[in-house]
Amino acid sequence: MTDKPKASAAQRRSAARFSAIQALYQAELSQLSAGDIVREYSDFRLDGEGGRDLDITNDDLIDPDRGFFADLVQGVAARMVDIDALIDGALEKGWTTKRLETVLRSIMRAGTYELMAREDVPMRVVITEYVDAAHSFFDENEPKLVNAVLDRIGKTLRPGEAGKN
């Protein structure tokens, strides 16, 4: 196995976000705890070894920021009720978090958690990162929905940042 390419802190956080979305999706479907999911990803997926059985490697992928990844997954699990309430309040009337497709729900939960708990990351960066992630999974209106919901939540949680461009 070759060394992974050198990556900036921002690129490593982007990779962590993408992995966290996948881990949250898996956690919801498998009913495993956040701690178990973080351990599994750290042991088998984030290092590129997990794909060996499928004859694929992650050698050329960016090594995620593991601490950031763990914070996202465990933070979403710990604050799920509050996160879902914020998302529900930002969705159009008649929609709830439970009605969202599982990957879309995972994207919104991770983004909402980051807006809640990671004030070290600017609001515009959080929104852009999760809209970009949504584009990786969806072609239609879902990325626009992620943008609108996270923007509404960001304006509520970080009103001082909302007016800055």
UniProtKB/TrEMBL annotation:
The keyword Transcription applies. GO terms for biological process: DNA-templated transcription termination; transcription antitermination. InterPro entries: NusB-like_sf, NusB_fam, NusB_RsmB_TIM44. One of its GO terms (molecular function) is RNA binding. Residues 15-154 form the NusB/RsmB/TIM44 domain. Keywords: RNA-binding, Transcription, Transcription antitermination, Transcription regulation. GO terms for cellular component: cytosol. Involved in transcription antitermination. Required for transcription of ribosomal RNA (rRNA) genes. Binds specifically to the boxA antiterminator sequence of the ribosomal RNA (rrn) operons. Belongs to the NusB family. This is Transcription antitermination protein NusB. It comes from Thalassospira lohafexi. The gene is nusB.
